[in-house]
Specification:
By secondary structure, the protein is α/β, with parallel strands linked by helices. It has one domain: Rossmann fold (3-Layer(aba) Sandwich). Helices cover 28% and strands 29% of the residues. The protein has an 8-stranded mixed sheet with strand order 1-2-8-7-3-6-5-4. Helix 1 crosses helix 2. The chain is globular and about 40 Å long.
């Protein structure tokens, strides 16, 4: 994997393949009930990360961003993966119709693209994964983790140690 360790909870991805590989690495640490909030602009790799996560969990079916359907379920692996894209939602009350409250924090792994805009309405326990373009090289991505809650902290620690070991 070409993913580089920059500092605690901060990594550098040099390619789409690195971002997918990072998702695969994370798949080895996630458990039922984990919530991952993916933050970053359009085209920074949120869906690529999710492709790697789904593949690492053992589901090799195609992953695309559920921008129009809001939710996609990838349940062919060791844990179900509930992939939400909240980009098109404008108000918190719209969350009720997505099915998010049926699975969030209970079953499988929930990945929320654009979830930061509704964080107060969702959960206090999650791992934030922020992807951004490197200001010095538009092809590189910086990936940063921020943990909220003890389970998210343990998840971030495991991921951090794995990337640091290479």
């Amino acid at each position: 994997m070409g993913l580089k360790y920059k500092e605690r909870y901060r990594f550098e991805s040099s390619s789409v393949e690195d971002t997918i590989a990072f998702g695969k690495l994370v798949s080895g640490f996630v458990e039922d009930g984990d919530v991952l909030v993916l933050t970053g602009g359009l085209g920074v790799g949120k869906t690529q990360f999710t492709k790697g996560l789904s593949c690492g969990l053992g589901d090799n079916r195609p992953v695309t961003s559920p921008t129009f359907s809001i939710m996609a379920v990838h349940d062919g692996g060791r844990l179900p993966l509930f992939h939400f894209d909240l980009y098109r939602l404008e108000h918190a009350y719209e969350l009720e119709d997505t099915g998010i409250y049926d699975v969030l924090g209970y079953e499988g792994v929930c990945v929320l693209e654009w979830g930061e805009q509704f964080q107060d309405e969702l959960t206090d326990a999650y791992l934030s994964i922020t992807l951004s373009r490197d200001p010095d090289d538009a092809d590189r991505r910086i990936i940063e983790l921020e943990a909220f809650g003890p389970r998210a902290e343990a998840l971030a620690e495991g991921i951090d140690e794995a990337v640091a070991r290479g």
